[in-house]
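Case study.
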Amino acid sequence: MKRDLERIEVPGEHEARARSWSVVLTAFAEREATPQRRSWKPAVAVALAAAAITGLLSPPGRAVLDGIREAVGVDKAQPALFSLPTSGRMLITSDAGAWIVDPDGSKRLLGDYREASWSPFANFVVATRRNELVALEPDGDVRWSLARPEVRFPRWGGTRADTRIVYRSRNELRVVAGDGKDDRRLARRASPVAAAWRPGPAHVLTYARKDGFVRVVDAERGTVLARNEARDVVRLDWVADRRLRVSTTAAALFDDSGQDVLRSDGRFSGAALSPRAQQLALVSTRGGTSIVELVSRTGTTRQLFSGRGRFEEPAWSPDGRWVAIGWPEADQLVFIRVAGRQQIRAISNVSSQFRSRSFPTISGWCCAP
Amino acid sequence: MAAGRDERAAVRAAQRGSASGIEALFRLHWQRAHRAAYLVVHDAAAAEDIAQEAFLAAVRNLDRFDRRRPFGPWLHRIVVNRAVDWTRARQLRGEAELVDAEAPEQTAPLDESLFGALAALPPEHRAVIVLRHLLEYTPGEISELLGLPRGTVNSRLRRGLDSLKETV
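After joint prediction, the assembly is written out as follows.
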């Protein structure tokens, strides 16, 4: 086969080679090598000395340092998403549709979809159009699709061998098997918030209802396992043995028994649990400034980054070392390294890179297949 | 192994700004990249553009390229993905624009039959056949290269080869 493929004549190969070489050589000659990075140590030493002298490490001073960090993030922004800071692939949704971004920065437009979400092991993507739920290969090939009215908030859960997709169609919460079969209604009066699967084989999920309750249900049997009052829920998540519920007034973590193990009061616009549920990234906005905070399992809070305007939902890297946030006002994606020495990488011109008039949304950052 | 050393040396030289480094990379990879693109898109001009664009992407990202990784798979992934995208886009344009298309290029009989059979496959199947049988990647490597599940790669290979066998 190889010999046969090599024997196929490619018309004009030699001329094409000569033309391409000329273009490549010209581009190579014109390219500007990346300037050597200046050492950050002298700058940090000066900053720390100044901080020590003026007492900036006191609480009011901390705000000043955050301001400096904010400026650094903007100043050092790369003009394009040349690469992701660590492994895993990102799913981004823009006006143009759903995109997959590989670690080397290469992007692929999957198609004209409004929302998208990874399958549990990132082998597939589930996406929505207005009246259609679509399961896709990561190269955009449609595996199957299901026509349903006003489809939103798809989430894919389960094991490698047996998966389910939960989604909202009008006010109904519906579940379909990973092969597109056995689509059925699980509940009426579901809130417009994405449901969250408990990881693993049990097909258990949590969802918010319009009557002001959050339920945990067995999606196979349709039985209600737990029921808690919770108004104005904006986000639900379930990672490892921790279930996250974020409302407009508080973020709360629950363990397997339903016990409230962590609670943080405040008006949060976004939240995400780290891959092993060891840490919680919280986004809030006060007085026109947004803050990303990191909360440990013990409740210790550390401010990671702040900036003027609104931050979007945070997303964790699959290795749990980075948090990504969208910053629409700056048209930037900001990657914050939370493990080891803190580091900030910002990417500018995000909307145009994803052919979008509105700011694109990070829909997931998941494991390589 | 020697080819791998040559390639790493070429990447290192190119990163230092040596034109001989980029020339060595071009010599090592252009022809296969161009052929791979042609076998997926079945259009000589598009294949030239795709191979050229892949090399230009390599030049643009040279400073960020990790020298410990092989250059070939990185280039081939760009080539094959762009070739599939181009073919899909052309299919979407429909028949209207093909009325004035030039007559197909003349090729040798064997080439023509295999070439024609390849053309009958969906572009995604062509891509895995080319990666497996021209560029000699294993199904596992193709799975990594294209970011596809291993089962999908295997089924595309199997279905693609079955179709080729029927036609050729």
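Observations recorded in class. The helical segments of chain B are 2-15, 19-41, 44-60, 71-93, 109-119, 123-134, 139-146, 150-167. Chain B touches chain A through 52 residues (CB under 8 Å). We will return to this complex in the next lecture.
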